[in-house]
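// run 5 | inverse folding | seed 20
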């Protein structure tokens, strides 16, 4: 097992390794004061891992209840959020009790936001069961739900009490979902870590899960420690996301987030070459690795359509957009880009 310590506004540990689900109960009990735990999960994950999580919490002397909602991004909304808050109140959870997010990023984001709001904030534990949640969403304390006007528009910064990543849970992931999460792993390697990039080149989808997830979590931990509230450096984690969100939007969300991020990362690489920020070899290596993981690197949409979709982002401020562009493998830069230049830049990246 690998332990990564996170030092944000709250200190906590991320445990990564095989066979960890049975220690959820003892670790939750060791936090102290809690009597009741509400496990929040979705309709795919609960049948697979709900009983094991519940049994472990019970055996540690904790009372449990479970809130299970239909799997998928469509559930990460205000309705589920209020349903969950009401469920917590009906089950009389107090401020000293705990929530457990058992699932992927959707479960983690919804549970975290409910934890931040219920009785003005209670503790929660992240048990990520997708690659994306393991390497990205479970660490760093961003929580959110989607609004009708866009994704993640309501949320809070609320750090978990600990993160328990049982890599055995990844065995049941549909291959598409596994590959999707790998887009975030590749993103992390392009941002910070050439040796990790080379390891992914060598091993492809058979990478050492504990080692690679731990490497990604350490990078995320470092960024969060430097800029917990996303006022500067944390922006780097958006590599591939500005163009990716545009591709996702234009596909009417039929293209998965990971595939959209892969295309966005490839566009960022090619656009960076056109600006002279990186060489063609770097962009080619990024595309090659994404394709090795079965991820797409091109989009049929026009630069004009992508530009319009990118600037419709509700979280954009003013007339510039912060683009994250690779300089070389393991190093990227934040480039404030006037919206007026965006279409040409995207055209160069197609
Ligand atoms: P997800 O939670 O929808 O999971 C993907 C699918 O896999 C779902 O159908 C789920 O039921 C299923 N699944 C999960 N674990 C499984 C397992 N072990 N075995 C079988 N099936 C399993 O999606 P995701 O990709 O994990 O997360 C995407 C969400 O994360 C988005 O809402 C995104 O906005 C959010 N996100 C948040 C952050 C953050 O910092 N908070 C960062 C990145 C992404």
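// decoded
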């Amino acid at each position: 097992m690998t332990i990564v310590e996170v030092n944000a506004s709250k200190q906590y540990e991320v445990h990564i390794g095989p066979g960890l689900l049975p220690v959820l109960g003892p670790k939750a009990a060791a936090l102290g004061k809690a009597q009741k735990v509400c496990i929040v999960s979705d309709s795919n994950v609960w049948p697979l891992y709900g009983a094991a999580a519940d049994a472990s919490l019970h055996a540690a002397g904790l009372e449990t209840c479970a809130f299970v909602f239909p799997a998928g991004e469509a559930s990460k909304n205000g309705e589920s959020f209020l349903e969950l808050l009401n469920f917590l109140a009906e089950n009389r959870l107090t401020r000293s009790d705990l929530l457990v997010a058992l699932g992927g990023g959707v479960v983690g984001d919804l549970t975290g936001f409910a934890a931040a709001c219920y009785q003005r904030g209670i503790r929660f534990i992240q048990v990520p069961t997708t690659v994306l949640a393991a390497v990205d969403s479970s660490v760093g304390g961003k929580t959110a739900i989607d609004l009708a006007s866009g994704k993640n528009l309501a949320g809070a910064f609320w750090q978990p009490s600990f993160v328990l990543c049982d890599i055995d849970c990844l065995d049941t992931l549909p291959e598409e979902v596994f590959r999707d999460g790998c887009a975030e792993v590749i993103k992390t390697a392009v941002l910070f870590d050439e040796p990790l990039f080379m390891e992914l080149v060598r091993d492809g989808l058979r990478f050492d899960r504990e080692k690679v997830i731990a490497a990604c979590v350490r990078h995320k931990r470092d960024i969060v420690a430097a800029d917990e509230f996303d006022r500067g450096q944390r922006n780097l984690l958006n590599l591939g996301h500005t163009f990716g969100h545009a591709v996702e939007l234009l596909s009417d969300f039929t293209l998965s987030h990971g595939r959209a991020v892969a295309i966005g990362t490839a566009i960022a690489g090619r656009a960076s070459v056109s600006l002279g920020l990186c060489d063609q070899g770097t962009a080619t290596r990024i595309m090659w690795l994404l394709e090795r993981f079965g991820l797409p690197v091109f989009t049929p949409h026009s630069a004009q359509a992508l530009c319009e979709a990118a600037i419709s982002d509700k979280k954009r401020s003013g007339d510039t957009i912060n683009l994250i562009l690779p300089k070389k493998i393991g190093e990227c830069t934040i480039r404030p880009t006037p919206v007026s230049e965006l279409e040409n830049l995207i055209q160069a990246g197609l």
